[in-house]
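Hi U.,

Before I forget, here's the chain from the pilot set. I'm dumping it here mostly so it's searchable later in email.
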Amino acid sequence: MNDFKRELVELVPKLLIYAKSLTKNLNDAEDLVQNSLIKALERESSFDGINLKAWVKTILRNTFLDSLRKKKEVQISEDMEEQTEKGEQEAVLLKRDIERCLEDLRELDREIVSLKGRGFSYQEISEFTETNEANLRVILHRSRKQLHTCLDGWVE
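Structure:
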């Protein structure tokens, strides 16, 4: 076993703790760690050799966020079909406008708003985004103001 693989194996317990803090479920955390390790092994050649823990933690975090985005896309798609079937086109239009307004936010701000909207705590979001909680609150406040302004036609 080469040094890279040995160091990966040594990181598994710490990665599992981090993954469980993200997923809130041991089975999901184990799957997340496994998927992240597979990606790390596939991308071994792109590792710069500086900080394996940080590199793999980034892969794990991005894998988790990608899974959230996929779930969100599926849910939005299902919701839009359901709303359309019920003839509630106004809800579909509002969702589209909210998505458009969210796209106007910076990527980090959009990620923070999305995670907060899913019920994650400030501490959890702070860990995910590596942003201190004070800055996180400022970003959320400014993002909410921007979204309110963008949705001015909908919000009374």
